Every structure is written in C-alpha cells, then in structure tokens.
Request: fold
Amino acid sequence: MGTAYKLDEPIIAHLRQKKLYIVLLGGPGSGKGTQGQKLAEELQIAHVASGDLLREHLAQETPIGRAAQTYISCGELVPDGVVIAMIRERLERADTAKGVILDGFPRTVPQAKALDEILAAQARKLTLVADLKVSPETLLARLGGRWTCRECGAVYHVLYQPPRERGKCDICGGELYQRPDDRPEVQKRRIAVYFAQTLPVIAYYKERGLLVEIDGERDIAAVHTQLLAALEAA
Ligand code: AMP
Reply:
C-alpha cells in the first residue's frame, strides 16, 4: 500500500525492533482497515481484523459464520462469546509473536476485559490504543462510496481512494464489491451501534492511560503519520 514517506522511515525502522500490541478503535468507515493494513505491512506484524475474520467464517459456512450471519446482516454486534473465542484462537497463532494490530476488536467492555486476560496469559500487554475520531456525518459519507476487495479485504473509496483500475484491487487484482452491510439502512445502524456500545471501551482504555486520540478526519497519509508518532511516543 504505497511507500513510506522519507520522514517516517527512521520511526518505522525503530518501531520494527519492538513488540507492538495495538488496538485501533473507530466507527465503521473511520479508516481502521486502511490504516491497520498499512501499519501492519510496514511494521511487519499481524493485522487481525474481526470483521474480516467473521466474513471469512461466513463464506466458509463454519459454526462461527452461521452464529454471526444475522447480526452482521442487520448491523448489530455479534455476541461477545463468539467473537472472543474467535480472537483467542487467532492470537494463539505463531504469526502474532512479534506483534498485532487489532482492528474492530474489542467493541464492548467485556471484549476489552477478555483481551486483557488473553494477552496476560501470553505474557503480552497492550502498547497503545488509538481512537480514530471521525464524525457520524463523515462516517456515512465514507461508507457510501466504499468498495472492498473480495480476495484480500483492501478497502477503496470512489472519491477518496479510487483503485487504479475500476472494479479491480491494486494490491492483488481481486474483484472489488460493495459489502451487503454497507447498504444505507444498515450503515446508519452500524454507526449508532458503534456510538452506543463502543464509546464505553474508549473510557475503559482512557482510565488505564493507554488511549491516544487521532484526528481521523484528515487524509490517509496524515492519519498514518499521527499513528506512527503516537507509537513512537508510547
Ligand atoms: P467491520 O468489518 O469491523 O465493520 O465489522 C462488520 C460486522 O462484523 C459488524 O457490523 C459486526 O456485526 C461484526 N463484528 C466485527 N467485529 C466485531 C466485534 N468485535 N464484536 C461484535 N461484532 C463484531
């Protein structure tokens, strides 16, 4: 996903020496996926996106996929037990040893508490929680033009980040599609659910001194630079 700016390179080289366990918080359309994928690639750590994992389970019709289907299609949160079990299993895999960017998890306080327990049992701890702050109006505008790669999950926007070739992923050449839960009525519900259920998670991390607020209204490169600076200072 593009090359790093010259100014960012020394920071990236320094951060690669560390073990980084990062949570990205932010509403649907806040840029978590875009930023998470870019950071993970640069820092050479795993990108664990709960929404992507759930969509893989859906496609493969696993028990987790079947349990999650109705919730996802109407924009509600999948029950904590299902999501926590899925993330626990994912964090036990070897590729998470050097660090992880969690994108879309935790979304509730019980999930945040479960994450603390999972990491503690692995003698790991969170480095930083970044909250990508974006207004509901901007979230709606961004979700409206969003296209996602069926193969690798990369996200594009008709206006803000168009693919080089229409309908085709720049990274893997996969087909771009509009997620069914990006329909207008479901979008509004997902944004409402975020503000109702995930804001307490922000308070949870603020109390623990882990939270950094990032201005998510800015363009992709500016948000990325803010994230790197926050990680360097953590
Ligand atoms: P996302 O791709 O992050 O926008 O997630 C898509 C959908 O997956 C959400 O609207 C929820 O239905 C479900 N989902 C993703 N992550 C979680 C989570 N941590 N807890 C509950 N539901 C989730």
